[in-house]
Amino acid sequence: MSATGGGGGGGGGGGQEEDKKPADQAHINLKVKGQDGNEVFFRIKRSTQLKKLMSAYCDRQSVDLSSIAFLFDGRRLRGEQTPDELEMEDGDEIDAMLHQTGGAL
């Protein structure tokens, strides 16, 4: 798994792109966007549990894993889920939200 903060992906390949396609299908590029608008990009296997991505994101942001909720399409993610289970596509965005406590009226 690799993570890059900020900018976009790297350069392209030559004429062998078609040959690489089947191997690339095993991996997916995901973007985790924090409440502050900061984006961190990850490339993981489609079969990798998301807890690996979640933990790596929290390490990079210096926050505790238990203080962040990860959302995809408005639904909270669980660490044991995989991109395949959730039918994620290349380039999909995961939202990282700080837990909010309280809220009494």
Outline the structure in words.
The chain is an alpha+beta fold and 105 residues long. Helix content is 19%, strand content 30%. It has a domain at 25-97: Phosphatidylinositol 3-kinase Catalytic Subunit, Chain A, domain 1 (Ubiquitin-like (UB roll)). The chain has helices spanning 17-24, 50-61; strands at 2-5, 27-34, 39-45, 68-72, 75-76, 93-98. Mean pLDDT is 84; it is low at 7-21.
Task: Supply database-style keywords.
single chain, 105 residues, alpha+beta, Ubiquitin-like (UB roll), six-stranded mixed beta sheet
CATH topology call of the domain at 25-97? Ubiquitin-like (UB roll)
The pLDDT mean sits at: 84
Order of helices and strands: EHEEHEEE
Estimate the strand proportion.
25-35%
Helical proportion, percent range: 10-25%
**Annotation field: number of helices:** 2
The end-to-end span amounts to: 44 Å
Structural class: alpha+beta
Radius of gyration: 15 Å
User: What ranges have pLDDT less than 50 throughout 5 or more consecutive residues?
Assistant: 7-21
Query: What is the overall shape?
Result: globular
Query: What CATH architecture label of the domain at 25-97 applies?
Result: Roll
Number-wise, the strands total 6
Q: What's the name of the CATH homologous superfamily of the domain at 25-97?
A: Phosphatidylinositol 3-kinase Catalytic Subunit, Chain A, domain 1
Strand order within the widest sheet? Answer: 1-3-2-6-4-5
Protein name: Small ubiquitin-related modifier
Domain Ubiquitin-like: 26-103
Family: Belongs to the ubiquitin family. SUMO subfamily.
Biased composition (Gly residues): 1-15
